[in-house]
Design a protein that fits this description.
16 strands, five-stranded mixed β-sheet, transmembrane, 33% helix, 490 residues, three-stranded mixed β-sheet, alpha+beta
């Protein structure tokens, strides 16, 4: 008993569209698609020729070419060329007869004794499907590889079974995957180790900025840089720093006596330490040493100039969290709220410096009452600045009162407050500047018998193009002394 079937061509579809390279044979009975028999590995179509070898293949069926709904699974015939999946030869469609009880793997029609022609194996690719009168389009979600089209339909296989070819391909893919995973793991470990030691210079390269005197913000963040505050030229910063040193010298010379002072020096030393002066440190002059200089009439002026200079300039330093502050009140509160730097190896001071610099620039811009002017933060007419100056003068006089004549106390307080307000102008100027600054209170190298009476100023320039070296940090920052400190021997 035998049955007549129809061979048609199927092109599969998935969510991404039609399979551009492979077409499959579909078996029909009475116009309805049926599963391709597992034993049907070769067919011969009258007037067309032989298609051999064939392997059955299962594909999921979709409701439409773009639908994600699977309606079932069908089994179709896949043509193999030299053991490699290839498109079903175009035109090789038509009726065939299959014996119902036969287990043979080669089925032919009664008229298949003709010479076997070489079928045209070219197929369309991309979004175009093969079309014939006996062609059916089937949707599938299984992507297929892109094999080379065969030059002819081979009457027999190449001698390598389909299973062997598939096994070799799977083995090669698995080996390649393992090698790729090992290489990626080694690369990630190496990068993680490098990040543990220091910040990646390339990762923060775009954060580095250079601010020459008189110029604006860098090219990056160009839109915001059009509005950020303009930096004060170096010359003006240096002149303001030196003028405050001269004002302190004039103040000390005018309002403090040279009379001997009897009594314990612990009280004035403690008052000086409360102002943020180092009580005991490796510095050449701590609170006790400065107090000793001030108590000695011969060195009093030197000691007072150093003490006042150090307290005033520390009050406008963003890196100093001790003692009274002459920075804007919100800024001072925030700086005191910052936790101490981490002491373990996971803490990165360079990241802290970079974050503080970014915060300072944006804060100066946002706190400015007239941002469009792009000038440094103003102190004129700010009642808060006056109140802070009065508070700092009162705190400083807990130490200075030991050296002031009673008849000059009010004049001394008024002049001291004026000097403090002038120092606040410099503090606002430096806070509004995009560069980092550091005051110099000690001789370098530190040596005994030498005292700084007028602070020096070091500018930390951030250079985008500077490569790290033993004398620079990985951020490319290096110190540039803008104002040399004035030192005297005692």
């Amino acid at each position: 008993m035998s049955a007549v079937y129809e061979i048609a061509i199927s092109i599969f579809h998935g969510a991404a569209g039609p399979d551009p390279n492979l077409a499959y044979g579909i078996l029909k009975s009475g116009g309805t698609s049926v599963d391709w028999p597992k034993t049907l590995t070769s067919i011969s179509i009258a007037g067309k020729g032989v298609v051999n070898p064939i392997t059955p293949i299962a594909r999921d069926l979709y409701q439409t070419a773009t639908s994600a709904t699977v309606t079932g699974t069908g089994t179709f015939g896949q043509y193999l060329a030299n053991g490699i999946p290839a498109p079903w030869p175009p035109g090789f469609t038509g009726p065939i007869t299959i014996a119902a009880s036969s287990t043979a793997t080669s089925i032919s029609t009664p008229s298949s004794t003709q010479a076997t022609p070489t079928p045209d194996t070219s197929v369309t690719s991309g979004g175009t499907t093969t079309t014939t009168s006996n062609t059916e389009t089937v949707t599938s979600n299984r992507p297929t590889s892109t094999p080379k089209a065969p030059s002819a339909v081979s009457p027999s296989s190449s001698g390598i079974s389909t299973g062997a070819v598939a096994g070799i391909a799977i083995g090669c893919a698995f080996v390649g995957l393992v090698i790729g995973l090992l290489a990626a793991s080694c690369l990630f470990r190496r990068k993680a180790a490098k990040r543990g030691k220091t910040l990646d210079h390339a990762a923060i390269h775009d954060e580095l900025e250079v601010y020459p005197s008189g110029k604006g913000a860098p090219i990056n963040d160009m839109q915001l840089s059009q509005f950020l505050l303009e930096p004060t030229p170096d010359r003006d910063v240096a002149q303001e720093t030196q003028s405050i040193g001269a004002l302190i010298d004039q103040h000390v010379e005018s309002y403090y006596h040279h009379h001997p002072i009897a009594g314990d020096q612990r009280a004035p030393a403690s008052a000086l330490a409360d102002l943020g002066f180092p009580f005991s440190s490796a510095a050449s002059l701590d609170a006790q040493g400065a107090t000793a200089l001030c108590l000695d009439p011969r060195s009093r002026q030197v000691g007072l100039r150093h003490a006042i200079m150090r307290v005033l300039f520390s009050s406008i330093d963003v890196h100093s969290s001790q003692g009274p502050s002459m920075l804007p009140a919100p800024v001072a509160s925030f700086l005191r709220a910052i936790p101490p730097a981490e002491s373990d190896r996971l803490g990165d001071p360079q990241a802290n410096e970079l974050a503080l610099r970014k915060w300072r620039k944006l804060s100066a811009f946002l706190l400015h009452p007239a941002r469009s002017q792009r000038t440094p933060l103003p102190t004129t007419g700010d009642a808060t600045v006056e109140a802070q100056a009065q508070e700092l003068a009162r705190s400083l006089n807990t130490f200075l009162r030991f050296f002031v004549d009673k008849q000059h106390q009010q004049q001394q307080v008024d002049h001291l407050q004026a000097v403090i307000e002038e120092c606040a102008k410099l503090g606002y100027m430096l806070f509004s500047h995009p560069c980092d600054w550091a005051f110099i209170f000690e001789p370098d190298p530190v040596r005994g018998g030498v005292v700084v009476v007028e602070a020096g100023l070091r500018k930390v320039v951030v250079d985008r193009d500077m490569a790290p070296s033993p004398t620079t940090s990985s951020l490319g920052a290096f110190p540039q002394i803008l104002v040399e400190p004035v030192m005297v021997a005692t």
